[in-house]
């Protein structure tokens, strides 16, 4: 059996995934990135190998992606997160044509073709109001942790209106709502709805077309996926549980499979580093 691996070094979490034959997920692991990106990549990779129950020498190809991909010195090849997400989304959902990826620091909309090639993309990383960081900051301001965002929003009865296009102005709206006695759950759900509106705008800019696949750590909050489906007026693909965070790593591993199948050899220096 041939195994390949992908490591996605994100701003908040680092994910590693190992694929076996026919795209079977053999192992995976998730670690907080922190400020030592290389260490996070190594720990996530080792944990994924342990989850798969295989030694590192069984990995035929290792590809790194994400904003910290170049810190993975033991990788064979580096690819952009757009390329990796496209491959990962179509691995899970072959009919995917539009991808929305919402992470802690960026939001990305991508349109792909039947061959999983990126045809159009737009990024929203200029302001935190258009990324998952805004949700996390809003939660922290009200005294809640990131893991409490989903359960908190789920209890909302009347979502607060948050329309600021800038994180600074949006934060002022949050403060104003709190001063007026608005419940934290309604503020949290309002922040999610604000992020959904920005997501739809970004998807329209790439000339969105179905099937729609939603990925990224922020999509683990169920209410956001439901709202997006409602606003799109169509069904959406949403990977189960924490798999939504592994799409980039899975896509990188899938690209490794394609390279291994085409007998494209990894660079000698990188391979030597990985096996040392």
- What oligomeric state best describes the polypeptide chains here? single chain
CATH class of the largest domain: Alpha Beta
CATH architecture of the largest domain: 2-Layer Sandwich
- Rg on CA atoms, Å: 19 Å
Low-confidence segments, given as residue ranges, are 269-273
Q: What structural class is derived from the secondary structure elements? A: alpha/beta
Terminal-residue CA separation: 22 Å
Helix content: 40-55%
Mean pLDDT: 89
- CATH superfamily caption of the largest domain: ATPase, nucleotide binding domain
What shape does the CA trace take?
A: globular
- Which fold name is given in CATH as the topology of the largest domain? Nucleotidyltransferase, domain 5
Biggest pleated sheet = 5 strands, mixed
Instruction: Give the topology string: H per helix, E per strand.
Output: EEEHEEHEEEHHHHEHEHH
Question: How does this structure look, described?
Answer:
The structure is a single chain. The longest helix is centred in the C-terminal third of the chain and has 22 residues, at 184-205. The strands form 2 sheets. The chain has a 5-stranded mixed beta sheet. Strands 8-7-6-9-10 form a 5-stranded mixed beta sheet. The protein has 2 domains: 3-85 and 246-275, ATPase, nucleotide binding domain (Nucleotidyltransferase, domain 5), CATH 3.30.420; 96-245, ATPase, nucleotide binding domain (Nucleotidyltransferase, domain 5), CATH 3.30.420. The protein is an alpha/beta fold. The chain has helices at residues 37-52, 81-92, 132-141, 149-154, 167-179, 184-205, 222-232, 247-261, 268-275, and strands at 3-9, 13-19, 25-32, 59-65, 77-78, 98-102, 107-112, 118-124, 212-215, 236-237. The model is unreliable at 269-273 (pLDDT under 50). It is built from 9 helices and 10 strands. 41% of the residues lie in helices and 20% in strands.
């Amino acid at each position: 059996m041939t195994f390949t691996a992908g490591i996605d070094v994100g701003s908040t979490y680092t994910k590693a995934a190992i694929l076996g034959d026919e795209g079977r997920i053999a192992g995976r692991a998730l670690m907080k990135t922190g400020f030592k990106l290389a260490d996070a990549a190594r720990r996530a990779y080792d944990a994924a190998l342990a989850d798969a129950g295989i030694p590192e020498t069984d990995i035929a190809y290792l590809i790194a992606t994400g904003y910290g991909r170049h810190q993975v010195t033991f990788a064979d090849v580096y690819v952009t997160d757009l390329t990796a997400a496209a491959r990962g989304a179509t691995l899970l959902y072959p009919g995917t044509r539009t991808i929305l990826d919402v992470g802690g620091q960026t939001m990305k909309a991508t349109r792909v073709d039947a061959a999983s090639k990126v045809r159009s993309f737009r990024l929203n990383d200029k302001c935190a109001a258009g990324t998952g960081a805004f949700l996390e900051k809003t939660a922290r301001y009200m005294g809640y942790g990131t893991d409490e965002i989903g359960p908190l929003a789920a209890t909302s009865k009347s979502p607060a209106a948050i329309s600021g296009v800038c994180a600074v102005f949006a934060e002022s709206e949050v403060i104003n709502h709190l001063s007026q006695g608005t419940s934290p759950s309604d503020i949290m759900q309002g922040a999610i709805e604000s992020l959904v509106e920005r997501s739809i705008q970004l998807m329209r800019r790439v000339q969105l077309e179905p099937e729609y696949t939603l990925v990224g750590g922020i999509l683990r909050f169920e209410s956001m996926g439901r709202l997006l489906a409602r606003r799109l007026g169509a069904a959406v693909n949403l990977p189960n549980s924490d798999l939504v965070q592994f799409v980039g790593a899975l896509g990188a591993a899938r690209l490794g499979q394609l390279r291994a199948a085409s007998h494209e050899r990894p660079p000698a220096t990188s391979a030597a580093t990985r096996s040392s």
